[in-house]
Amino acid sequence: MTLYLIRRLFQALLVMLAMSLIVFIGVYGIGDPVEILISPDADQAERARAVAALGLDLPLWQQYGVFLVRALQGDLGRSFVYNVPALQLILQRMPATLELAVGATVLAIVVGLPLGLYAGLKPDSIGGRSIMAGSILGFSLPSFWVGLMLIMVFAVQLGWLPSTGRGTTVEILGSRWSFLTRDGLAHMIMPAMNLALFKISLVIRLTRAGVREAMLMDYVKFARAKGLTNSRVIFVHVFKNILIPVVTVTGLEFGSTIAFSVVTESIFAWPGMGKLIIDSINVLDRPVIVAYLMMIVFMFIIINLVVDLTYTILDPRVRLESKAI
Amino acid sequence: MSAAAEPVTPEPVAPRVETPLRRFISQFMESRIAVGALVVFTIIVLLAVFAPWITPQNPYDLFQLDIMDGRMEPGTVGGAGFTYWLGTDDQGRDMLSGIIYGLRISLIVGAGSAFIAGIIGASLGMLAAYAGGKTDTVIMRLVDLQLSFPTILAALMILAFLGKGISNVVIALVIVEWAYYARTVRGSALVERRREYVEAAQCLALPTWRIIFVHLLPNCLPPLIVIGTIQVARAIALEATLSFLGLGVPITEPSLGLLIANGYEYMLSGKYWISFYPGIALLITIVSINLVGDHLRDVLNPRLQK
Amino acid sequence: MNTLEVQGLRTHFHTRAGVVKAVDDVSFSIAKGQVLGLVGESGSGKTVTGFSLIGLVDPPGRIVEGSIKFQGRELVGMPEEEMRQLRGNRIAMVFQDPMMTLNPVLRIDTQMIETVQAHDNSSREVARQRSRDALGMVGIPSPDERLMSYPHQFSGGMRQRVAIAIALLHRPDLIIADEPTTALDVTIQGQILAEVQKLAATTGTSLLWITHDLSVVAGLADDIAVMYAGRIVEQGDVGEVLDAPLHPYTSGLLGSVPSRNARGVPLRQIPGMTPSLLSLPKGCTFRARCFQAGEDCLQEPPMDEALPGRFVRCVRPLRATVPTA
Question: Burial code of C208-224, b = ≥16 C-beta within 10 A, e = fewer?
Answer without folding.
Answer: bbbbbbbebbbebbbbb
